[in-house]
Amino acid sequence: MKKKGIEVPPAVYRPLIGEDGNSQIKDAVLQFVLGVTSALPESVLPEFAFAGKSNVGKSSLLNALVNRKALARTSAQPGKTQTINFYRVNGAVYFVDLPGYGYASASEAVKASWGKMIERYLHEDKQLRAVFLLLDLRHAPSENDVLMYNWIIDQGLPAVLVGTKADKLKRSQLEKQKKLLRETLGAPKETPLILFSSVTKQGREELLRLVAEMAKQASVRLQ
After folding, report:
1. Taking the model in full, what pTM does it have?
2. Domain coordinates of the chain in residue numbers?
3. What CATH number does the domain located at 4-18+27-222 have?
4. Residue 102: pLDDT above 90?
């Protein structure tokens, strides 16, 4: 079994956060595409996975993080991402885009194959440092969201909750939804919860700083 190799420029390391404390994303490129039968990439860079149901705004979030319009392709058609895509960012980390779950029109066989692919990645990948679980702030978490959160925790991985489409709600509504997300998932207060909008870029700097800190902690542990 082989992974799909993609011709990309050699990595040049740049920190995600500059000396002024602000993000500095200079380079982002799709490097690996992992299919159902693919072997896991042999990487030494920290990996941060992004999970969520179809149409939760995952591609829009990834594009906003790296200041690109179409690095991760957005689509009005749910379930468009059917592979695990590895985006190398600043030669420092990988942002890993997992297939969206809960796509009703997908066949049971396809859903099962996606589930096995995601499970294998979460269970076997050695460089995975955290999973960012995206949740649409306009709705209560679904049964699949709860299952995904528990799946992450059961694998012993740090979970970060990301409430998407924050620009669609009023401030008073946001506080109510934050409470609802935690209660429905059973997430303790120690679990980070970031409100995000790909339109206003709310939460972008906070999320990137958290990634940088987690990557730094991983580096220290390996020394």
Report:
1. 0.87
2. 4-18+27-222
3. 3.40.50.300
4. no
